[in-house]
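Progress against Task 2.4 (sequence-to-structure conversion) is shown through the following example record, which the project officer requested during the mid-term review.
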Amino acid sequence: MASAYWRKKTPPPASPDPNRDGCGLLWYAPVAPADGVSVTTLTGISEDTLLEHGFEPMISLTMITERSVACVISIAYDREVPGEDGKAMACYQELRQRLASRGYYPYRLGVQSMDLLDSNRSRTEFLKTLKQALDPNDVLAPGRYLNSEAGERR
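Structure tokens generated for the chain above:
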């Protein structure tokens, strides 16, 4: 929880609440082959991008199999500083583009990345069927994962 307070000028309070306290945190979570060249490339692009946008590189790597590494790149910022939301989102978008152009795609998407989901009709129908069967009252992830162009939840 303390990492959410990284950019705040004061220490985390005894009863932390990152939303209440104006903490900003974006994560990008790509996967890479578990070899030195891939991991060095992934972390190098990430480090360069974050530094170019004025953020400290906060990168974690986890071996998920003997062949793959999951990475979480954190962009911590102070939402109470004017312009920081936009600055952090611009960094996130550029990081996303740079890594994807090199073949490092995310294993998980945040709400700010729903546009990455393609509009494949069969995928949409499959998701609609699952959603109706498992969550007919739209309690889980409301408004996410379904194509909004057709007036459906995304």
